[in-house]
Write a structure and sequence with these properties.
A: about 700 residues, Four Helix Bundle (Hemerythrin (Met), subunit A), 5 domains, 23 helices, B: alpha+beta, five-stranded mixed sheet, 3 helices
């Protein structure tokens, strides 16, 4: 009888979050003046399936909440209600609220009831037509904190006025005594009658049903939570229940009336329910909670939602086409294998040609197979991009700027792991563009630019890399200002002539900010260095092109996958190490006399007038080998790590190849200076160097 | 037939009796001493093959090998227990063990002199280890058991392999 529903929870949450995304993008495209009914339909459908799903899984809080949204959307859909910007904003706020609710349920935390109640009140206010009074939760969550009671009270008043013509309906808690059935009453009959009045949803609480062998069939151990939607007066409902009066505990509440401010007697009634019904307990907790200053800033919300994002995407949806392609490839490999088996069975020299052909085929198939498998991990970058219209919408209205966001190349595919990790850096960069890049409308007009600024988010593939560009047509970076600021902070030396590129690089230095004024959006000077570090940890790099007055382009280059890496193998003694190709700047042969000792400890070497520190790989890895003990000659691999150049002294360069990254930590542990391992063609293991880690290690 | 059947029955009942308490251990030799590990923890036994050295780790952590695509660390148990080092020969074996820490299992190879036997041990016969004069500290040893007059020290695989984590803190 009892199916373990929790096994479907993951899917449910994923679907919900997808639905919320659909609602969000729908709401954002919704043009208030000219409403596309198809868009509203999409939003409505998403809300409807979330409601249905959460009802099925017993997340009544979500179901009830979505129901109100649905009612509102339904009216908009039928044209009974005008689509207004405040209403859309409230709906957007509700999407946030739902997302939080679902996230807390998913993480098995308590739902933030205060915030839910606020959003609910706002929704209901819209529903009841008091739009002008509504404080939009997105814009100012605090304002609502200050005046929740007033608002709710207003809602209550409206409800009572609407009692007879109320569209919202009723919530009925029906909890029969054990001997209800003995009096000849049948709950089903009651429900049938209720159903005639309006749309009835019944949720049964079966917790109190005893074990089967203790069950007395004449006792009624069930209780119900009913929801009646429709134009019904409370008297009509009471009439239906008049037969069972005295045989049950009955509580009838209008749905629109939040329980928060229910006066004493009702709270008592609810508390009786608490023993039976847990979902209600959740709701009852509200009166005890004085409205606390929930959600101080939007940041909290975002931190939370990004956390959930990582958690929720632990499974992956794969296009069936991709799986079919994979299965085809596996079939091919099996055929080739059996063919090779036949060749090998009675091998004679005249079969060499056949063998070679077979091996060539096998090689091709293996490569294709590898590609197909990699393809499964590839997701379109739209998974990340789709969040930005909302971000731009919110921030630009907050800053009073007019900004349109253009998305290009959303279907560019990239590894799932990259998708997960690129989100935060991108959010940061876009916030920067919004805040610092794009000017205020007046300023733009004065500069002869269109009033509305444009931010373009562009993704495309280039040579095994994905490039993500953030292009704004704002004010651009001011080189002189950057230089002055850097000098003031003592980050650079006055006498050094910096190239244009190097000047732009300054903004990646920790603690660097030219913003005149700190906003909660950006300007604290932490961030850009973190952005760069994150992108480098993904094996990518970031560059800036800017023209004063015209705009800024920030380009991020990322590897398509984190599972494969282009590496340079180097020999140190008898050992082979892999240096990631992305971090190598150049490699040069050197002789002993090119090295200079500094204070008898460190070593440097001169590269085109610049002195670079040297790390001897033999020394730092304690390589003991009699083989080629020549410290006099070797190869310097110039690498970039931690933003600075540095030379690794190795014995020999071996070759470049693509290597599959294997974790050392799976069975072993983290080793300093090593980011992972790979298996070479001969089956032996080679370590992949962690360039920034090695630089750190050498400093100690 | 008639004579055999009671015999068989008693064997059977002996077997059944011991089933509840019986544990099988794989025994191996380190120098003159004999050790045992729970056979259910043994994934496979391999011959020694060259490893890729890991820099800056204790010397008993010999390095890592490629075990069918997984990177598996190899530990020299002689060095781990402070025995004198010996040259590896073709007879040197690597016992690949599974250790579960938490919900994750990890595999690790240990180098031993030679694998001896699979021994059946009755749980009730396992004695707790006194603080005796071997070079192995007591913490790895679950208990002692004597098999054919020989003493076998039963090792706690989890503790043995978990110590690697402590090692990383030292670095």
């Amino acid at each position: 009888m009892s199916i373990d529903m929790s096994q479907f929870h993951q899917v449910f949450f994923e679907e919900c979050f997808e639905g919320l995304e659909a609602m969000e993008s729908g709401l954002l495209t919704l043009d208030v003046g000219d409403v596309d009914s198809e868009v509203i339909n999409t939003i409505f459908r998403a809300a409807h399936s979330i409601k249905g799903g959460s009802g099925t899984f017993g997340f009544t809080v979500v179901a009830e909440y979505t129901h109100i949204m649905e009612t509102l959307l339904d009216e908009m859909r039928d044209g009974r209600r005008q689509v207004t910007q405040p209403a859309v904003n409230v709906l957007l706020g509700s999407v946030d609220c739902l997302r939080e609710m679902l996230a807390s349920i998913q993480n098995e935390q308590d739902v933030d009831e205060v915030s839910v109640a606020q959003h609910k009140a706002a929704l209901e206010a819209v529903l009841n037509g008091v739009v002008s009074e509504v404080v939009v939760p997105v814009a100012a969550p605090k304002a609502i904190n200050e005046a929740p009671k007033v608002q709710v009270a207003a809602a209550e008043v409206t409800v009572q006025e609407d009692d007879d013509a109320g569209e919202q309906g009723w919530k009925i808690s029906f909890c029969p005594y054990l001997d209800l059935l003995k009096t000849g009453n049948d709950p089903v009959r009651l429900f049938r009658e209720l159903n005639e009045l309006g749309e009835l949803t019944a949720i049964v609480n079966a917790q109190d049903v005893p074990k089967f062998y203790e069950l007395d069939p004449e006792e009624c151990n069930l209780s119900w939570d009913l929801k009646l939607i429709g134009n019904v007066s409370s008297d009509e409902i009471k009439e239906i229940f008049s037969w069972v009066e005295g045989d049950c505990e009955l509580e009838i509440q209008p749905i629109a009336k939040p329980k928060v401010i229910k006066p004493g007697p009702v709270v008592e009634a609810v508390q009786v329910d608490v023993e039976i019904d847990e979902p209600i307990q959740v709701a009852v907790a509200e009166p005890e909670n004085t409205p606390k200053p929930a959600l101080d800033t939007k940041k909290d919300t975002e931190a939370e939602s990004s956390k959930t994002a990582v958690k929720a995407s632990s499974s992956i949806r794969v296009d069936t086409e991709k799986i079919d392609a994979l299965i085809n490839m596996v079939g091919e490999v099996v055929i080739t294998q059996s063919m090779l088996g036949l060749v090998g069975e009675n091998f004679t020299m005249d079969k060499v040609g056949q063998l070679k052909r077979g091996l060539a085929q096998l090689e091709r198939h293996t490569r294709d197979l590898q590609q197909s498998v990699m393809n499964i991990r590839m997701l379109p970058i739209s998974f990340v991009f789709s969040r930005f219209p909302r971000l731009v919408h919110d921030i630009s209205s907050k800053l009073n700027k007019k900004i349109t966001l253009k998305l290009v190349g959303e279907n560019t595919e990239v590894d799932k792991a990259v998708v997960e990790l690129i989100n935060d850096p991108l959010v940061h960069l876009i916030r920067n563009s919004l805040d610092h890049g794009i000017e205020m409308p007046e300023e733009r007009i004065a500069a002869g630019k269109p009033e509305t600024g444009t931010i373009e988010l562009k993704a495309y593939h280039r040579g095994g890399h994905i490039v993500i560009e953030i292009i704004d047509d704002g004010r651009g970076l001011n080189k002189d200002k950057l230089l002055a600021k850097a000098l003031e902070k003592g980050l650079i030396d006055e006498n050094i002539q910096l190239t244009e590129k190097q000047i732009y690089e300054l903004i990646f230095m920790p603690g660097f900010s030219t913003a005149e004024q700190l906003t909660d959006i950006s300007g604290r000077g932490v961030g850009m260095d973190v952005v760069r570090r994150n992108i480098q940890s993904l094996g990518g790099n970031i560059e800036i092109i800017s023209e004063l007055g015209k705009g800024t382009t920030i380009a991020i280059h990322l590897p398509l996958t984190l599972a494969i890496l282009d590496g340079q193998s180097v020999a140190v003694g008898d050992e082979i190490y892999i240096v990631p190709l992305v971090s190598i700047v150049e490699s040069i042969n050197i002789t002993e006399k090119m090295l200079n000792k500094v204070a008898g400890k460190g070593e440097t070497f001169r590269l085109r007038g610049e002195y670079l520190p040297i790390i001897r790989m033999r020394g730092i890895f304690n390589v003991q080998s009699n083989n080629k003990p020549k410290t006099s000659e070797g190869v310097i691999v110039v690498v970039e790590g931690q933003g600075a150049l540095c030379g690794f002294l190795v014995d020999e360069l071996l070759g470049q190849q693509q290597v599959v990254i294997k974790s050392l930590e799976a069975n072993y542990r983290r080793v300093e200076g090593v980011s992972g391992a790979t298996i070479l063609g001969d089956g032996s293991v080679a370590l992949i160097l962690d360039v920034p880690g090695l630089v750190r290690l050498s400093v100690r | 037939m008639a004579q055999e059947s009671p015999n068989k029955e008693s064997e059977q009942s002996n077997y059944n009796k011991s089933l509840g308490n019986a544990v099988q251990y794989l025994s191996f030799a380190l120098g003159n001493e004999e050790y045992g590990v729970d056979i259910l923890r043994v994934q496979e036994i391999r011959s020694w093959e060259p490893v890729s050295r890991i820099p800056n780790v204790p010397s008993y952590e010999k390095g890592v090998v490629n075990l069918r695509g997984a990177i598996v660390p190899i530990i020299d148990l002689r060095e781990r227990f402070n025995f004198s080092r010996v040259e590896y020969t073709p007879l040197t074996v690597v016992v690949v063990l599974q250790a579960g820490d938490g919900n994750k299992t990890r595999i690790m190879g240990v180098v031993v002199d030679s694998v001896s036997d699979v021994i059946n041990v009755d749980k009730t016969e396992i004695q707790s280890a006194p603080d005796f004069g071997t070079k192995v500290s007591n913490e790895f040893i679950n208990g002692l058991v004597s098999v054919n007059e020989r003493m076998v020290m039963l090792l706690d695989v989890d503790k043995l392999l978990k110590l690697e984590d402590l090692g990383s803190d030292e670095n």
